[in-house]
Write a structure and sequence with these properties.
The complex is a heterodimer. By secondary structure, chain A is mainly alpha-helical. Chain A has one domain (about 10-475). Chain A is about 75% helix and about 0% strand. Chain A starts with a helix and ends with a helix. By secondary structure, chain B is mainly α. Chain B has a domain at about 275-503. Helix content of chain B is about 75%, strand content about 5%. In chain B, helix 17 (about 380-395) runs antiparallel to helix 19 (about 420-440). Chain B is globular. Classes of the chains: A mainly alpha, B mainly alpha.
Chain lengths: ~475, ~500
């Protein structure tokens, strides 16, 4: 029986569903040159969604629809971050889309549906909701990657993303069915309760392996990382920004719900799997990134290595471990938006600014954007006093507390390797002279983009001071 | 008692200045220069104010500030200074003024960014010396890499990119193991607060591991043999101001780390491995002295001589264990530590002055080859006088600051073991060798080229900068008592602390 209370718990999601449909409809009735209206409506819709998420947040965890949907503080933090990242994408994407005649309403409604999927996913209380959210997130994302129909690279990336994503969700579904077979329930809490009593423990472990593979795909952790670089490279830059930030946040929610809420008693089995994936991701991501000449591909491999850091936190199955992983994912998403934002600000019609060499001498052409990019790079490298440093300290600390000193040492050794390619970007911007033939920077950038990017970039410095507050929220989200 | 957060002001005022200087923009270099000069002078004035606020008598950590930072991991914004830190902070603020003045017309390209990097360095280095929280210390310790990276990479010599990447990655490599060490300490002690860690009973095995994780970081930064190879490259390629800051202040950060971390937190491991540090220090003093002798490049020569002088600092710090714990000669032990700190300060002045001198010459002939110069005494007599003075200080002539620290360290090591003193004192010969030979080649004789013979005499600005260095070097050499008195009780407290075993 659906009660009004259930609907109220679900209010942000219900609102976003309606709003996305309305935006779709609204867009049909306006001309191409009025599209800015859709843009602003889209941003307002997202801002209202943030308000609804925060304002309606009950102090305690509440569930709706018989436990299918959970509204807790972890979901709140993830949802707010995802919505913020999406707003950043909307603002930063507009000039880019306009230049390429891709400024279409579908971009906004597809993004909204995708975000809705993430919101469902991170609030899932049962395997069904979880899977539903995952698919709702992925399908619009596939379409977004293929937004530029003219581009072969884009279509190729979309197909790759789709095929591998379908494979991943197939594996995940298969794992879920095995879990269901072993425990006889889809509800995550009941799965948790029946892990100890199941007559088929091996079936359960077998299912667990598939779930971990599915999670690995979602994160893009080695050895399930193959899709990531191609998708980053092929996707339109704003969409690559979305793919780099939002699914990682979703994946933290996915991992927590499945592995801790559902299969927490099997932590002894899965924490080692995550640790191994973490070590592999750190090694492969950092080493391969050095060889990249394409900036987006480099960021893709850097993302892989950062997912290794997130796993460092997840591999310590305690509230502190999850809190540090959540902190890391939030921080990572907002660092990526800066890195991609600068690329978007510099790109012009017929010039993507995708290669690292395109940034040559940027300091002389545009010191402000060079500064923002330098902040993003140092932050990604985890150099204090930038936000990425706090995130790195927290995950390393939780790995050491979890008794995995070896993993922490692997992580830092590869972060030394990783330092090189971040520094190379800074070097190219500051120490190299600009090419004679370099594309001149247009006199003005979209002011909204410039302002938001600046706030985002300076935030990476300011957040080191507020790390304590954010970490306290993350800890509270997991009841630490 | 002061009621305002004097240490925070010291750290963040130069950083604020950096923002203003950046806002001045590339188009207004004059404004950028005057702003930076104003900010460094004000910072120095405040640091003097702090010096007078500090009470030598009771020692301990004064002017403490504590704010919550990340309560979840028990780390806080905790600042405080003892006598050693006060001396180093005043040194930092003093040298920063001279660096800004030294770069006045020399830096023509992107003045605002250069000055901003210098100001940020000023603030962050003061932060290193104030930090009383291990994670906060690490934050400043690492953060100084960023402005230095830009300074070397953007305004350096022909191989600047190689040098700056090597510098950054090398030092990052060292400090990242130190971070793991810190996190392990947190894992055991549950806090990053230094006073708690100083008294936390780590077992011998833990201490040994931690000792080496710290040693990598501090040895790279100091630098000690064999991880010193980044320093000559960084020095040669860095702009003059970068070299001065690097030699005068940044090297002290490593040895300061020993004082704050290795000695008090890990007294037993430090005692156990003191022989290793002593041997490495002696190798630095003797072997690196010989390496300095054969350098054809002036900057390289002074860079290697810096490594040799830092050998004295580490020697003075670790000889303490022999004196205090084995011979129970507390007074000598204190003398050793004090000598090490005096040597740190003195080397800050002397090496800063020498690099400034080299910068002055480089601005005129654009080469650092020793063979390109000669007969400075005739060409630039004033300048030659400064050169000779600083060279004498570098060899440790009595009456200059260089003598005080070296003498104290040699004296205390003689009490510990005459052989160690013998090897350490060897540096007086070899140091005199490379420095005097350098002087002979560039100051005396005749100019090798017409250009070298017609170099203009130093101008007022350069004269003022070098004069300030000269006053500091002589004052410290003739009357070192105020400095010793300043840190007497802090050193005594340190030595008493590290006499007690934790295991």
């Amino acid at each position: 029986m659906i009660s009004l209370n259930d609907l109220l718990v679900l209010l942000p999601e219900l609102y976003l569903t309606a709003a996305a449909c309305l935006v779709l409809l609204f867009d049909v009735f306006i001309n191409d040159d009025q599209r800015d209206a859709t843009h602003w409506v889209g941003i307002i819709v997202m801002l209202v969604a943030i308000f609804l998420v925060i304002h309606g947040q009950p102090p305690q965890t509440v569930t709706a629809f018989g436990g299918m949907f959970v509204r807790d503080h972890m979901a709140e933090i993830l949802k707010v971050t995802v919505l913020i990242a999406t707003i950043l994408m909307f603002v930063m994407a507009r000039p880019w889309l306009k230049d390429r005649k891709l400024f279409i309403g579908e971009f906004y409604s597809l993004s909204m549906f995708s975000v809705l999927g993430v919101m469902l996913l991170v609030s899932a209380g049962s395997l069904i909701t979880l899977y539903l959210g995952l698919e709702l997130f992925s399908l619009p994302a596939f379409a977004l990657v293929a937004l530029n129909r003219e581009s072969k690279l884009s279509s190729e990336a979309a197909i790759k993303f789709f095929v591998l994503g379908a494979l991943a969700s197939g594996l995940l579904l298969f794992g879920m069915s095995l879990i269901y077979g072993a425990t006889g329930t889809l509800d995550l809490h009941r799965i948790f309760a029946s892990v100890g009593t199941t007559p088929h423990p091996h079936l359960l472990q077998f299912g667990l392996v598939f779930l971990v593979v599915g999670i690995g795909f979602e994160f893009g952790a080695v050895p399930f990382h193959m899709w990531l670089p191609d998708v980053y490279e092929g996707a339109p830059t704003p969409v690559a920004m979305y793919i780099s930030a939002v699914p990682k946040l979703a994946a933290v929610g996915l991992a927590y719900r499945l592995l801790q809420v559902g299969l927490g008693p099997l932590a002894g089995d899965w924490h080692m799997m995550l640790a191994i994936m973490a070590a592999l991701s750190l090694a492969v991501g950092n080493v391969v990134a050095i060889a990249q000449a394409n900036f987006k591909r480099m960021l893709a491999y850097s993302t892989i290595s950062h997912m290794g850091f997130v796993f460092l936190g997840l591999a310590n199955p305690t509230p502190e471990g999850y809190a540090s992983a959540l902190f890391y994912a939030v921080c990572f998403a907002l660092m990526e938006t800066v890195a991609f934002g600068v690329i978007l600000a510099l790109a012009r019609k017929g010039f993507e600014c995708e290669m690292i060499d395109d940034l040559k001498g940027l300091n002389r052409r545009s010191p402000w954007f060079a500064g923002m990019m330098a902040i993003a790079m140092f932050s990604l490298a985890g150099i204090p006093p930038l936000w990425g440093f706090a995130a790195k300290v927290l995950v390393l600390k939780s790995a050491i507390d979890g008794g995995m000193l070896w993993l922490a040492i692997v992580a830092i050794i590869f972060s030394i390797v990783g330092l090189f390619y971040y520094l190379r970007v800074v070097k190219v911007m500051y120490f190299d002279a600009p090419d004679e033939a370099a594309e001149p920077l247009a006199a003005k950038t979209d002011p909204a983009l410039r302002w938001l990017l600046s706030i985002n970039g300076l935030g990476l410095i300011a957040m080191i001071g507020f790390s304590g507050v954010l970490y306290a929220w993350c800890q509270a989200a997991f009841g630490a | 008692m002061t009621t305002w957060p004097i240490l925070s002001v010291l750290i963040w005022l130069p950083c604020l200045g950096a923002i203003l200087v950046l806002l001045a923009g590339n188009a207004r270099p004059r404004l950028a220069r005057w702003l930076s000069l104003a900010f460094t002078v004000i910072t120095f004035a405040i640091s003097l104010w702090m010096l007078f606020q500090y009470h030598e008598g009771p020692g301990g950590f004064q002017m403490q500030e504590k704010l919550r930072w990340i309560p979840g991991i028990n780390t806080s914004y905790h600042l405080g200074v003892d006598g050693i830190a006060v001396a180093l902070i005043v040194l930092t603020a003093f040298v920063s003024i001279l660096v800004v003045a030294g770069a006045w017309e020399v830096i023509k390209d992107r003045v605002h960014q250069y000055m901003a990097a210098m100001l940020v360095l000023d603030g962050l280095l003061i932060g290193v010396f104030c930090a009383m929280d291990a994670l906060l210390f690490y934050l400043f310790f690492e953060a100084i890499l960023i402005p230095m990276f830009f300074l070397i990479g953007a305004w350096g010599g022909p191989r600047r990119v190689y040098a700056t990447l090597k510098f950054f990655i090398y030092t990052f490599f060292g400090s990242i193991f130190y971070l793991i060490g810190l996190l392990y300490m947190y894992h055991r002690a549950g806090t990053f607060d230094l006073p708690t860690l100083w008294n936390f009973p780590f077992t011998m095995q833990e201490q040994s591991w931690l000792f080496f994780s710290f040693l990598i970081a501090f040895a790279v930064k100091t630098p000690m043999v064999p991880v010193h190879t980044w320093l000559p490259d960084a020095h040669v390629e860095a702009p003059t101001g970068g070299s001065v800051i690097l030699a005068a202040i940044m090297l002290k950060v490593g040895t300061y780390g020993f004082i704050r971390f290795s000695l008090p937190i890990l007294p037993d491991a430090s005692q156990h491995f003191a022989w290793l540090i002593i041997v490495l220090s002696l190798i630095a003093i003797i072997y690196i002295g010989y390496v300095a002798l054969v350098q054809p490049d002036m900057k390289k020569l002074v860079a290697y001589s810096s490594i040799a002088h830092m050998g004295f600092v580490t020697l003075g710090m670790f000889i303490v264990y022999m004196l205090a714990r084995q011979l129970h000669d507390i007074q000598m032990a204190q003398l050793g530590v004090q000598g090490a700190v005096v040597q740190m300060i003195s080397h800050g002045f002397v090496s800063g002055a020498l690099f400034t001198c080299i910068g002055v010459m480089y601005d005129r002939l654009h080469t650092r080859e020793i063979s390109a110069y000669g007969g400075l005494a005739k060409v630039m007599p004033w300048f030659a006088a400064f050169w000779v003075l600083f060279a004498m200080a570098n060899t440790g002539l009595p009456g200059t600051s260089g003598f005080v620290g070296e003498f104290m360290v040699i004296l205390s090591s003689f009490t510990a073991n005459p052989w160690i003193a013998l090897f350490a004192a060897y540096s007086l010969i070899i140091g005199a060798g490379y420095t005097l030979w350098l002087i002979k080649r560039i100051v005396w004789g005749t100019a090798p080229t017409q250009k070298a013979a017609s170099m203009p005499e130093i101008n007022t600005r350069e004269g003022l900068v070098l004069g300030a260095f000269a006053v500091a070097v002589l004052a410290m050499g003739v009357w070192p008592w105020p400095l010793m008195h300043l840190m007497d009780s802090s050193v005594a407290q340190l030595v008493t602390h590290l006499m007690t075993s934790k295991v």
